[in-house]
Every structure is written in C-alpha cells, then in structure tokens.
Amino acid sequence: MAEPWRERARQVGWVLLPLRAFLAIVFLDGGISKIADPRFLDDASPLSMHASVTAIRANSPIGGALGVVQSHSVAFGVAMAVAELAVGIGLALGLFTRIAAAGGMLLALSLWLTVSWGASPWFTSADVVYLFALTPLLIAGAGWLSLDAWLDRMRAAHPRDDRTRRALLAGGTALVGAMVLGLAALSRPSHRSRRQRQIDTALPSQPLTPVGDVPVGGAVQVTVRSADEPAWVLQLQAGAFTAFDARCPHQGCIVDFVSAADGFACPCHHSRFDPQGRRLDGPAPRGLTPIPVRVQDGDVRTR
Questions:
Q1: Domain Rieske, which positions (predicted)?
Q2: Cβ–Cβ < 8 Å for 177, 87
C-alpha cells in the first residue's frame, strides 16, 4: 500500500496541491474583501483604489500609464476584484488552471510595479513572491484533484463530448463566481473598517499615558488597552496631542517614530509617514489610522 502513495507523491499535481490551495485562498480573499469594503470603490475615501493610485503614481515605474486607472478607478477596481475572484475559483477547482495562473501573475506583476514597488529590499514585496509562486501552475497545470484532470480523462474516453463539457463547466463556474460576487457585495458594511472598529473599542474615554510622559516635539508608544493594540501619542507642539495606530497598513509591522520633522518609518518594508500620519512613500496603501484623543486629569485619553 505504501508504494502507490510514494509514487503519487512524486507526481507534480500532488506536490503543487498545497501551493494551489494557498494561492486560491489568497486570491478569493482579495477579491471578496475588495467588493465587501465600501471604501475601496469610493473615490472620496482615503482608503479607495483612487487614493492608492494617486499616492503611488509618482513613484511607480509605470506611473505614466496609471492616468487612465486614476480617472476610471471604480471600473478598474471592479475589474480587479472580479479578476481576483476568477483566478481564485480557477485555482480552487483546478479549472483552466494555466489561464488562471497567467491571470494571477498579471495581477501580481501589476501590484508589484505599483503598490509594492517601494519595498526595500525588493524581494520583501509579497507581490513578487506571488508572481513567481504561480509559475509552477502555469507550467505544469493543476494535475490531481482538479477539473482539468477530469476533463482530460473524459476527453480521452469520449472525445466528441469534450467541448460541451468544458462549456458547461465554464458556465457553472461563472455562475458560482457571480454568486460569490453577489454575496460579497451584500456583506459590504455601511460603516468604518474593522481596523478602525478595533481601535474604537477603546471608547469611551480610556487613559493612554500621563501628559508628562510625552515630550514636546516627541512621541511615546502606548497600548490601547481594550483593543490590546500599540499606538503612538505625539506632542508636536506644547499642549497639542495627537495619536495614531502604530501598525503599518501594509503588513501590520509596528512603525517607528523618527522625529517631529520626519514622522514615522516602517522597519519592515520602509513605508514612511509624515507626523500627521499621512503616507509619504513605500508599499503602504494609505496613512496611519488616527486615534482621537483629549487631555483630562493629567492624562492623554481616548475620546
């Protein structure tokens, strides 16, 4: 009994199965989260695709080609979300796997050349990793536990019916994709992001740090206790206190406060933010999340 499993383990389809499953989840999550987030397609939101393209256009090597994306960000945003869903479904089912892998590589390449182009060193960009992670599926296909393999077996047995089967499967897959897209759209929240809601759990008012612990022109790192999240409290001018979530919007690393002039820097992928938390450059898609604060009884507190 052991020998068939050893033989099967040597076959490419089984070897690639964990990678295929992981990439399918990544692309499905990416597509669903974009449709489910009302800010992504809201040009007025600082977290929208429009805002992201505006922020990264100057530093992107393909910035000259991003003008049309910036001008039609909603259409491109929908197309990107649908494309990610299509890639995810194709990889999950192992249907038209090489086409799905090629589409995923195109998406990863576009993100690498835009959103994560500023990552330093360059190989720390997640997008370039996804780009090359998809190459085995482009070359070898899905293999085992895939509809592509089943279709190949059916074509060998009944060659005349192959086109009909593929058309039916493509139609069924498109229907599944439309249902996922519809459910994601229905799940769109009408309020702020999960990240902002996590920080809002600190409300009502909660002490962050004594006023005397925050130097004028400096900052001190604190913990928002009820959210158990790190934050920075600043006093850039005497008596004027501000606070920001300390996690970088890129991949959640804790940002460092550099100075009142230089603001913040992410030690992981080198995104930079000004003292008001606004994104300056790097792979972060937006600025730091602000935390409303006030002074009461000698403490800087959440509002």
A1: 208-302
A2: no
Give which of 88, 175, 96, 98 is closest to 135, Cα–Cα.
98
Task: Please tell me the class of the 194-302 domain.
Answer: mainly beta
Peptide bond into 204 cis (omega under 30): yes
Cβ–Cβ under 8 Å, residues 101 and 130? no
CB 181 within 8 Å of CB 35: yes
Q: What is the mean pLDDT of each run of 10 residues along the chain (303 residues)?
A: 54 84 94 84 74 81 89 89 92 92 95 84 87 94 84 78 66 66 56 47 71 94 78 93 90 86 86 92 88 91 85
- CA–CA dist 302, 229 (Å, integer): 13
> CB-based burial of residue 107 (10 Å sphere; 0-12 exposed, 13-18 middle, 19+ buried)?
buried
DSSP string, 18-31: HHHHHHHHHHHHHH
- Which sequence spans correspond to the domains of the chain? 2-186, 194-302
